[in-house]
Amino acid sequence: MFFAAELLYNCVFCFLFSLEMTQANSVTQHFKSIVVKETHNSTIHCQYETASIPTLFWYIQDPNQAPQLILGEFTQNDNIPLRFRNRFSVSHDKKNENKTFQLNINAAVLSDSATYFCALSPTL
Ligand SMILES: *[C@@H]1O[C@H](CO)[C@@H](O)[C@H](O)[C@H]1NC(C)=O
Ligand SMILES: *[C@@H]1O[C@H](CO)[C@@H](O)[C@H](O)[C@H]1NC(C)=O
Q1: pLDDT tens profile 7-46
Q2: What is the CATH number of the domain that holds 113?
Q3: Quick one: which atom of ligand 2 is closest to the CA of 97?
Q4: Residue 65: which domain range?
Q5: Residue 68 pLDDT more than 50?
Q6: How far apart are CA 115 and CA 118, in angstroms?
Q7: Is 86 in the pocket of ligand 1 (CB under 6 A)?
Q8: What is the strand order of the sheet 68-72 is part of?
Q9: Is residue 17 one of the residues assigned to a domain?
Q10: Predicted confidence (pLDDT) at residue 3 exceeds the cutoff of 90
Q11: Would the pTM of this model clear 0.70, i.e. be above it?
Q12: Is the beta carbon of 20 within 6 A of some atom in ligand 2?
């Protein structure tokens, strides 16, 4: 039997909070779609630009649901929702000229089919 999970993700959905946390800007959204076979590994990339040092997060949005936090850059494995624990991890490349924050998905399952968002907030 063959299953494929379709991951739709957004590279530049970034919330930029002002110091007062009163303003939130969202940058133009560019959705990309990838198809991952069940049990296969995959990586999705978020490219961001900011002058500050941000803390980054990945969110998932299932159809007709509100976005749900998967994990942030500093989330301990124990605090990742069970559905993703031990399968989802992140890596942050701050050195590349194109700064990227990756979500690594191991052993994809059909229920991983969803829209993924990357979000950042500057370190205050
Ligand atoms: C997926 O990644 C895990 C851990 O890095 C590795 O053990 C496994 O062989 C990989 N699976 C595939 C299908 O590449
Ligand atoms: C950075 O992104 C630009 C535009 O997408 C691309 O042309 C360039 O090769 C990238 N640089 C690196 C080091 O990945």
Answers
A1: 666 543 333 332 223 333 434 445 677 888 888 898 888 8
A2: 2.60.40.10
A3: 13
A4: 25-119
A5: yes
A6: 10
A7: no
A8: 31-37, 4-10, 114-122, 54-61, 68-72
A9: no
A10: no
A11: yes
A12: no
